[in-house]
Request: fold
Amino acid sequence: MNPLLNVDVALKNILADMKTLEAETVSLPDSYDRVLAEDIVSPIDLPPFDNSAMDGYALRYEDSAGASPPMPATLAVTMDIMAGGAPDGRLEAGQAARIMTGAPIPKGASAVIPVEDTDDDWSKGENSPLPAEVRLFKRLTRGENIRLAGENIKTGETILTAGTVIGAAEIGMIAGIGRPRVAVIRQPKVVILSSGDELVDIYDELGPGKIRDTNGYTLAGLIRDAGGLPIRLPIAKDSLASIRALYRRALDINPDLIISTAGVSVGAADLVRVVMDELGEIDFWRINMRPGKPLAYGTICGVPFFGLPGNPVSTMVTFEVLVRPALAKIAGRSVAQRTIKATITDDIRSDGRRTYARVTVRREGDCFVARSTGIQSSGALMSMVLADGLAIIPEDQTLVPAGGELEVLLLRGIE
Ligand code: AMP
Ligand code: MG
Reply:
């Protein structure tokens, strides 16, 4: 029997094998949560023109010199500029232009006074008549309340770099420079295979000795969460013909990754192994982790393949520890795992393998506190519903006493 393989070594080997997918071009609305595959350079200044940061009056700042509530400066109102307008006149000494936020600053103006600092009253709303004169109660500095062209972004400036995940702010910036299409990394197509005579799908009747295929659904969720496109095939029977047909069907889809569950432990493995020997180059790894010791890894007709253990918790934990980073690399995303240090509330025992214990995590002051979700059976999927994270008990440690500190791999955000 091969010795147990260290988890970190396994992950390092896996990541070295994975290749990031090529780019594709998508429309901007479809680029949300995708990974940018190009640097985005702005062809324009942002803002594109000098504009007002306030509703008020544009003027030459010198004309406000000495203005105060008892000694207001009076200017003639010669222009009215709405947002979206394009003033063509020029503001001369002693003149002011009524101006709205975002409207272009007219030539000659060098500051904007907010309407609150004038004698004008806009309480009548948009239809307020344009006054002939306006009195200023405040002195302004040069450039006050003017947003200058290019003050946010200059023409030719790189606003986003390849590898960035496009979120709301990023998509807004790309819209702001008027790009309708962007290059993003193609999303990995991931085929999910379940096999077992005991498995039935959610639509089928639960006959004697049968259980539902849950792994097909948890994996689809995990793959989606990791930026992949899950494709779930029908459940194969425990027969050579059925398993062979399923793997052929998987390959017909031309996937970027194939994930199967079950059939890799000794005993159950034989049928799957036969098919893998026919189609692929697979190593059967006995990994030094709990849950999830038996794991198959390699390629099938050149497509990367993971054969995860069948127990529902083992499937999810091995995905988190080994498959999520692999999928992240294929998808061009960060492979870093989110971990924190937490104090454990109760003794946790292990068998000397690196153990991933399901825990809830809460914040207490500056620290995190982790508590076991209770039942830790690798068949009890409910422990994953309850878990905020996986507390990692290092190799060769069989007891972590209450009050000890462990690293926790986070499965979700902590309140
Ligand atoms: P096996 O690796 O086939 O021996 O399966 C190990 C355990 O996982 C057994 O209890 C199976 O019934 C269970 N199992 C296998 N595949 C699935 C699945 N797709 N969904 C839920 N449980 C499964
Ligand atoms: Mg089975």
Observations:
- The two ends are 45 Å apart (CA to CA).
- The CA atoms of residues 276 and 282 lie 7 Å apart.
- The first helix runs from residue 7 to 17.
- The pocket of adenosine monophosphate (ligand 1) is lined by residues 194, 196, 198-199, 211, 213-216, 261-263, 265, 268, 309-312 (CB under 6 Å).
